[in-house]
């Protein structure tokens, strides 16, 4: 009988190379929580991949709020609309919403209050690793004096940030996705808006935490 023969290291290597990761359509997708391959998938939204239950648990808080509603945000109301993530003041979690970025007043109507001016920050600027993982950039828009104006406290951000970092975010926030188009016919830099999905929330929250702990709102850097 040879059935108990221990395979040699060479055999093991061959087996590993010859056996692909089973049953995933995107085999190169990385874990949402670390650089390892994401071989497990969230069973509800089917959008986020993880290397392990541990990484899934680690990211649960920034995955769960949007995971539940991703399925309801698949049918674009019209071609100008893109899926954004809205952080309302008076709700306990962020949510998806359709935004028309061709409408120059859409964000203003949603965010501005009493002539407060708005500000936008690129979250992914300078963070290539995340940009590679998401495949796009994220822009966050909010009231310019979101720390000190008299807007109400943003509860959907408070959920993640808490008050221990010493800063309270006020007024609504909106996150949108975009890409730079480089090979444009007119040789001009232009951008296209893209849909955000469940994967965007964790980096947004990480950015907000950094902002809450830093001295001033600033560009994200490594
Ligand atoms: Zn992982
Ligand atoms: Zn999910």
From TrEMBL:
Q: Where is the signal peptide?
A: none
Q: Which residues form the MYND-type domain?
A: 31-67
State the organism's lineage. Answer: Eukaryota, Fungi, Dikarya, Ascomycota, Pezizomycotina
Query: Which organism does this record belong to?
Result: Pleomassaria siparia CBS 279.74
Its Gene Ontology molecular function terms?
zinc ion binding
What Pfam families does UniProt report for this protein, alphabetically? zf-MYND
Annotated protein name in UniProt: MYND-type domain-containing protein
Keywords assigned: Metal-binding, Zinc, Zinc-finger
Q: Which PROSITE patterns match?
A: ZF_MYND_1, ZF_MYND_2
């Amino acid at each position: 009988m040879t059935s108990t023969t221990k395979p040699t290291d060479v055999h093991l290597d061959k087996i590993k190379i010859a056996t692909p990761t089973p049953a995933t359509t995107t085999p190169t997708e990385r874990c949402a929580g670390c650089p390892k391959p994401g071989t497990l998938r969230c069973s509800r939204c089917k959008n986020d991949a993880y290397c392990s239950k541990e990484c899934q648990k680690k990211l649960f808080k920034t995955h769960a709020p949007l995971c539940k509603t991703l399925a309801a945000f698949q049918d674009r109301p019209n071609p100008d609309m893109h899926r954004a993530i809205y952080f309302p003041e008076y709700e306990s979690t962020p949510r998806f919403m359709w935004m028309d970025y061709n409408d120059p007043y859409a964000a203003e109507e949603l965010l501005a209050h009493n002539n407060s001016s708005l500000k936008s920050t690129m979250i992914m600027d300078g963070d290539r690793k995340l940009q590679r993982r998401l495949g796009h950039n994220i822009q966050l828009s909010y009231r310019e004096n979101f720390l000190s104006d008299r807007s109400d406290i943003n509860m959907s951000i408070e959920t993640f940030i808490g008050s221990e970092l010493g800063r309270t975010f006020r007024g609504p926030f909106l996150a949108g996705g975009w890409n730079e188009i480089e090979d444009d016919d007119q040789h001009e830099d232009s951008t296209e808006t893209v849909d955000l999905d469940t994967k965007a929330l964790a980096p947004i929250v990480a950015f907000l935490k950094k902002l809450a702990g830093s001295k001033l709102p600033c560009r994200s850097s490594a």
